[in-house]
Give the backbone structure.
Amino acid sequence: MRTFRNPALRWVAPVTVLGVAVVAWASGSAVAAALIMGTWLMAVGLTDRVRVEADAQHVRVVNYLRTTVLSWGEVAAVEVDPAHARCVLRLRSGSALTAWGLYAGPGGLGAAEIVKAVNELETLRARYRGPRVHHPRARVAARGAFARARPMSFSSSLVLGALLTGLALLGGGAYLLAQYAAFAEHGVPVEAVVTEVSGFKYADVTLRYTVDGQTLVNTAGDWNDWPHVGQTVAAVYDSTNPSQITDARVAGTLSALLEAVWVLVIGASSLTYAAVRWLRGPWY
Protein backbone atom coordinates (compact mmCIF):
# COMPACT_ATOMS: atom_id res chain seq x y z
CA MET A 1 0.00 0.00 0.00
CA ARG A 2 1.30 3.43 -0.96
CA THR A 3 0.35 6.83 0.43
CA PHE A 4 0.17 9.95 -1.72
CA ARG A 5 0.09 13.52 -0.37
CA ASN A 6 0.89 16.97 -1.63
CA PRO A 7 4.38 17.51 -0.13
CA ALA A 8 3.70 21.25 0.11
CA LEU A 9 1.24 20.53 2.93
CA ARG A 10 4.16 19.50 5.13
CA TRP A 11 5.21 23.16 5.27
CA VAL A 12 1.90 24.34 6.71
CA ALA A 13 2.83 23.75 10.36
CA PRO A 14 6.42 25.12 10.45
CA VAL A 15 5.64 28.13 8.24
CA THR A 16 2.54 29.28 10.12
CA VAL A 17 3.50 28.45 13.69
CA LEU A 18 5.47 31.67 14.26
CA GLY A 19 2.76 33.93 12.86
CA VAL A 20 0.02 32.18 14.82
CA ALA A 21 2.10 32.33 18.01
CA VAL A 22 2.61 36.11 17.55
CA VAL A 23 -1.12 36.64 17.04
CA ALA A 24 -1.91 34.55 20.13
CA TRP A 25 0.63 36.51 22.21
CA ALA A 26 -0.72 39.85 20.95
CA SER A 27 -4.28 38.91 21.89
CA GLY A 28 -3.51 39.84 25.49
CA SER A 29 -5.73 37.10 26.90
CA ALA A 30 -4.77 33.57 27.89
CA VAL A 31 -8.21 32.28 26.88
CA ALA A 32 -8.04 33.96 23.46
CA ALA A 33 -4.48 32.68 22.96
CA ALA A 34 -5.56 29.13 23.80
CA LEU A 35 -8.49 29.45 21.38
CA ILE A 36 -6.23 30.71 18.57
CA MET A 37 -3.63 28.00 19.08
CA GLY A 38 -6.29 25.30 19.43
CA THR A 39 -7.92 26.38 16.17
CA TRP A 40 -4.55 26.36 14.44
CA LEU A 41 -3.75 22.87 15.73
CA MET A 42 -7.08 21.56 14.45
CA ALA A 43 -6.46 23.13 11.04
CA VAL A 44 -3.03 21.51 10.89
CA GLY A 45 -4.55 18.17 11.93
CA LEU A 46 -7.16 18.35 9.18
CA THR A 47 -4.49 19.26 6.64
CA ASP A 48 -2.35 16.32 7.72
CA ARG A 49 -5.33 13.96 7.53
CA VAL A 50 -6.08 14.26 3.80
CA ARG A 51 -4.30 11.74 1.57
CA VAL A 52 -4.76 9.01 -1.02
CA GLU A 53 -3.78 5.39 -0.28
CA ALA A 54 -3.62 2.76 -2.99
CA ASP A 55 -2.54 -0.80 -3.70
CA ALA A 56 -3.01 -3.10 -6.67
CA GLN A 57 -6.69 -3.72 -5.90
CA HIS A 58 -8.12 -0.68 -4.15
CA VAL A 59 -7.79 3.06 -3.70
CA ARG A 60 -8.76 4.89 -0.54
CA VAL A 61 -9.42 8.63 -0.71
CA VAL A 62 -9.25 10.30 2.71
CA ASN A 63 -10.73 13.80 2.53
CA TYR A 64 -11.39 16.26 5.33
CA LEU A 65 -14.69 14.77 6.49
CA ARG A 66 -15.22 11.68 4.40
CA THR A 67 -13.29 8.52 3.57
CA THR A 68 -14.14 6.60 0.39
CA VAL A 69 -12.80 3.15 -0.52
CA LEU A 70 -13.11 1.97 -4.12
CA SER A 71 -12.02 -0.99 -6.16
CA TRP A 72 -9.94 0.02 -9.15
CA GLY A 73 -12.73 -1.61 -11.17
CA GLU A 74 -15.01 1.28 -10.16
CA VAL A 75 -12.55 3.92 -11.40
CA ALA A 76 -12.57 4.86 -15.09
CA ALA A 77 -9.60 7.25 -14.92
CA VAL A 78 -7.38 9.26 -12.56
CA GLU A 79 -6.81 12.76 -13.88
CA VAL A 80 -5.45 16.17 -12.96
CA ASP A 81 -7.96 18.99 -13.07
CA PRO A 82 -5.84 21.67 -14.82
CA ALA A 83 -8.02 24.55 -13.65
CA HIS A 84 -7.35 23.83 -9.96
CA ALA A 85 -4.29 21.51 -10.06
CA ARG A 86 -6.02 18.75 -8.15
CA CYS A 87 -6.48 15.00 -8.48
CA VAL A 88 -9.89 13.80 -9.68
CA LEU A 89 -11.05 10.19 -9.88
CA ARG A 90 -13.56 9.66 -12.72
CA LEU A 91 -15.87 6.80 -11.70
CA ARG A 92 -17.61 4.37 -14.03
CA SER A 93 -20.91 5.38 -12.45
CA GLY A 94 -20.50 8.78 -14.12
CA SER A 95 -19.62 10.74 -11.00
CA ALA A 96 -16.27 12.18 -9.94
CA LEU A 97 -14.37 12.19 -6.66
CA THR A 98 -11.88 14.92 -5.74
CA ALA A 99 -8.85 13.92 -3.67
CA TRP A 100 -8.11 16.97 -1.52
CA GLY A 101 -4.85 15.46 -0.32
CA LEU A 102 -3.54 16.05 -3.85
CA TYR A 103 -4.58 19.67 -4.31
CA ALA A 104 -2.15 22.43 -5.24
CA GLY A 105 -4.51 25.38 -4.79
CA PRO A 106 -4.38 28.74 -6.59
CA GLY A 107 -0.66 29.09 -5.88
CA GLY A 108 0.15 25.78 -7.51
CA LEU A 109 2.24 24.62 -4.54
CA GLY A 110 3.38 21.06 -5.14
CA ALA A 111 1.71 20.88 -8.57
CA ALA A 112 4.58 18.91 -10.12
CA GLU A 113 4.44 16.30 -7.35
CA ILE A 114 0.67 16.04 -7.75
CA VAL A 115 1.05 15.31 -11.48
CA LYS A 116 3.61 12.63 -10.64
CA ALA A 117 1.31 11.07 -8.01
CA VAL A 118 -1.64 11.10 -10.44
CA ASN A 119 0.46 9.32 -13.07
CA GLU A 120 1.40 6.61 -10.55
CA LEU A 121 -2.23 6.19 -9.50
CA GLU A 122 -3.32 5.95 -13.12
CA THR A 123 -0.65 3.29 -13.69
CA LEU A 124 -2.01 1.23 -10.79
CA ARG A 125 -5.53 1.58 -12.20
CA ALA A 126 -4.42 0.53 -15.71
CA ARG A 127 -2.69 -2.57 -14.35
CA TYR A 128 -5.82 -3.74 -12.56
CA ARG A 129 -7.22 -6.91 -14.17
CA GLY A 130 -10.21 -7.53 -11.94
CA PRO A 131 -13.92 -7.02 -12.72
CA ARG A 132 -15.14 -3.60 -13.88
CA VAL A 133 -18.05 -2.28 -11.85
CA HIS A 134 -20.52 0.04 -13.56
CA HIS A 135 -23.50 0.11 -11.22
CA PRO A 136 -23.35 3.30 -9.07
CA ARG A 137 -24.27 1.40 -5.89
CA ALA A 138 -21.92 -1.52 -6.39
CA ARG A 139 -18.96 -1.90 -4.07
CA VAL A 140 -16.17 -4.46 -4.07
CA ALA A 141 -15.26 -5.71 -0.61
CA ALA A 142 -11.96 -4.26 0.54
CA ARG A 143 -9.44 -6.38 2.37
CA GLY A 144 -6.43 -5.87 4.55
CA ALA A 145 -5.97 -2.26 5.64
CA PHE A 146 -9.07 -1.10 3.76
CA ALA A 147 -12.59 -1.07 5.14
CA ARG A 148 -15.80 -1.24 3.14
CA ALA A 149 -16.97 2.24 2.19
CA ARG A 150 -20.14 3.40 3.89
CA PRO A 151 -22.04 6.16 2.12
CA MET A 152 -23.11 7.86 5.32
CA SER A 153 -22.37 11.44 6.29
CA PHE A 154 -24.29 11.71 9.59
CA SER A 155 -21.20 10.88 11.68
CA SER A 156 -19.02 13.44 9.90
CA SER A 157 -21.83 16.00 10.24
CA LEU A 158 -21.80 15.47 14.01
CA VAL A 159 -18.03 16.01 14.12
CA LEU A 160 -18.23 19.17 12.03
CA GLY A 161 -21.17 20.48 14.06
CA ALA A 162 -19.37 19.82 17.35
CA LEU A 163 -16.23 21.49 16.02
CA LEU A 164 -18.01 24.66 14.87
CA THR A 165 -20.15 24.81 18.01
CA GLY A 166 -17.12 24.38 20.25
CA LEU A 167 -15.18 27.14 18.48
CA ALA A 168 -18.15 29.51 18.63
CA LEU A 169 -18.76 28.85 22.32
CA LEU A 170 -15.10 29.21 23.21
CA GLY A 171 -15.04 32.54 21.41
CA GLY A 172 -18.19 33.69 23.21
CA GLY A 173 -16.89 32.44 26.55
CA ALA A 174 -13.58 34.24 26.04
CA TYR A 175 -15.48 37.48 25.35
CA LEU A 176 -17.65 37.07 28.46
CA LEU A 177 -14.59 36.29 30.57
CA ALA A 178 -12.77 39.36 29.23
CA GLN A 179 -15.84 41.49 30.03
CA TYR A 180 -16.00 40.08 33.56
CA ALA A 181 -12.29 40.71 34.16
CA ALA A 182 -12.48 44.26 32.82
CA PHE A 183 -15.40 45.33 35.04
CA ALA A 184 -14.21 43.34 38.08
CA GLU A 185 -10.76 44.95 38.01
CA HIS A 186 -11.38 48.37 36.46
CA GLY A 187 -15.09 48.96 37.05
CA VAL A 188 -16.17 52.39 38.32
CA PRO A 189 -19.75 52.96 39.57
CA VAL A 190 -21.65 55.83 37.97
CA GLU A 191 -25.16 57.24 37.89
CA ALA A 192 -26.42 57.29 34.29
CA VAL A 193 -29.52 58.67 32.61
CA VAL A 194 -31.39 56.47 30.14
CA THR A 195 -31.77 58.19 26.77
CA GLU A 196 -33.01 55.28 24.64
CA VAL A 197 -34.21 51.70 25.10
CA SER A 198 -34.36 49.18 22.24
CA GLY A 199 -34.16 45.44 21.64
CA PHE A 200 -36.54 42.50 21.54
CA LYS A 201 -35.87 39.83 24.15
CA TYR A 202 -33.17 41.75 26.03
CA ALA A 203 -32.94 45.51 26.40
CA ASP A 204 -30.16 47.56 24.82
CA VAL A 205 -30.04 50.70 26.96
CA THR A 206 -28.35 53.89 25.77
CA LEU A 207 -26.97 55.85 28.72
CA ARG A 208 -25.67 59.38 29.27
CA TYR A 209 -23.09 59.67 32.04
CA THR A 210 -20.14 61.81 33.10
CA VAL A 211 -16.50 60.70 33.33
CA ASP A 212 -13.93 63.23 34.57
CA GLY A 213 -16.19 66.11 33.64
CA GLN A 214 -16.85 64.80 30.13
CA THR A 215 -20.33 63.64 29.12
CA LEU A 216 -20.45 60.30 27.28
CA VAL A 217 -23.32 58.51 25.58
CA ASN A 218 -22.94 54.77 25.02
CA THR A 219 -25.11 51.66 24.82
CA ALA A 220 -25.14 48.81 27.33
CA GLY A 221 -26.46 45.52 25.97
CA ASP A 222 -28.45 42.81 27.77
CA TRP A 223 -29.77 45.08 30.51
CA ASN A 224 -31.55 43.22 33.31
CA ASP A 225 -34.89 45.01 32.93
CA TRP A 226 -36.56 47.64 30.75
CA PRO A 227 -35.95 51.07 32.28
CA HIS A 228 -37.82 54.16 31.09
CA VAL A 229 -36.26 56.96 29.07
CA GLY A 230 -35.15 59.70 31.48
CA GLN A 231 -34.74 57.27 34.39
CA THR A 232 -31.51 57.38 36.39
CA VAL A 233 -29.91 53.95 36.82
CA ALA A 234 -26.83 52.50 38.50
CA ALA A 235 -24.16 51.47 36.01
CA VAL A 236 -20.47 50.58 35.92
CA TYR A 237 -17.97 51.68 33.28
CA ASP A 238 -14.48 50.37 32.52
CA SER A 239 -11.92 52.95 33.66
CA THR A 240 -9.48 51.83 30.95
CA ASN A 241 -12.18 52.22 28.29
CA PRO A 242 -15.00 54.46 29.55
CA SER A 243 -17.13 53.74 26.48
CA GLN A 244 -17.71 50.23 27.89
CA ILE A 245 -20.59 50.41 30.34
CA THR A 246 -22.98 47.84 31.77
CA ASP A 247 -25.61 47.21 34.42
CA ALA A 248 -24.18 47.57 37.94
CA ARG A 249 -26.13 44.48 39.01
CA VAL A 250 -24.05 42.17 36.76
CA ALA A 251 -20.72 43.98 36.31
CA GLY A 252 -17.88 41.86 37.70
CA THR A 253 -20.21 39.67 39.74
CA LEU A 254 -19.91 35.98 40.52
CA SER A 255 -22.88 35.22 38.26
CA ALA A 256 -21.08 36.87 35.32
CA LEU A 257 -17.99 34.76 36.01
CA LEU A 258 -20.03 31.55 36.27
CA GLU A 259 -21.78 32.34 32.99
CA ALA A 260 -18.44 32.77 31.21
CA VAL A 261 -17.02 29.59 32.74
CA TRP A 262 -20.18 27.64 31.84
CA VAL A 263 -19.97 28.71 28.19
CA LEU A 264 -16.26 27.82 28.08
CA VAL A 265 -16.91 24.39 29.61
CA ILE A 266 -19.60 23.59 27.03
CA GLY A 267 -17.32 24.79 24.22
CA ALA A 268 -14.41 22.70 25.49
CA SER A 269 -16.70 19.67 25.80
CA SER A 270 -17.85 20.09 22.19
CA LEU A 271 -14.27 20.31 20.95
CA THR A 272 -13.29 17.28 23.05
CA TYR A 273 -16.14 15.29 21.52
CA ALA A 274 -15.06 16.32 18.01
CA ALA A 275 -11.43 15.40 18.75
CA VAL A 276 -12.35 11.99 20.19
CA ARG A 277 -14.57 11.15 17.22
CA TRP A 278 -11.80 12.27 14.87
CA LEU A 279 -9.09 10.22 16.58
CA ARG A 280 -11.34 7.16 16.64
CA GLY A 281 -11.93 7.66 12.84
CA PRO A 282 -12.05 7.11 10.04
CA TRP A 283 -14.87 9.51 9.22
CA TYR A 284 -17.40 8.56 6.63
